[in-house]
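Q: What structure does this chain adopt?
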Amino acid sequence: MAEAAKARPASTILLLRDSAGPDGNGEIEVFMMVRHYEIDFNSGALVFPGGSVDASDHEIAAQAELHPGGGKLDAEALGFRIAAIRETFEESGILLAQQRGPARLIDARRAGEIEAASRAELCDGKVTFPKVLADNGLLPALDALVPYAHWITPEGMPKRFDTWFFLAAAPPDQAGAHDGKEATDSIWVSPREALAGGETGRFKLPFPTTRNLIKLGKHRTVKEALDQARSKPIVTVMPVMTTLNGGRQLRIPAEAGYDGEVFEVGAV
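A:
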């Protein structure tokens, strides 16, 4: 029997902002991107910004002075959070960082200057994230992240990820935009609209994305979503696929909070 592919550590952020909503009562919007159709994992899918943890994330994690607020986290947990911030900057241009000294997020003007000067080089591997932070006197804003979910790709899949999902309120006036390489489009969208698009075929939604959008859509405001996430324990989800009567089912832990345990995911 072939050995199962090892799950690569990865992180993603659900960047949130409040919106008036179609009925005027308010709803959450989340930043999402359409992955390039030539990418071999979730090609063409509508997803949250994120990606694999890399060596530069561990480099930052190893230096306590570079991650205030992270003192109670171990090196692995720090790596996931730093990767989430780096990948979000690479893929959306939104930078969750703070000046050294007073713990406040940088403003949109400063973030835009850093994005214009460094984002492309960072994506192309010409500069590292530690250098971008150091050159601008910044620290990753780890306190802005709230753990939301932990999913591991099922065994038997050729490419597997061990992914932490985080929530974060989008910094004011940082609108974000896709990079045109890994992603071909980007949108601020309510969970309601994204899920409706998945039903009609407007959007291609991976199973974990769908479940997390449904979960997020239960909240009307960013504060409500963040407060709820802080109050709930994280239950790791590694779906188990089974077949029944010619169809496929995914089983996940009921206690993970996704309103169910067995979900139909299409024909074999």
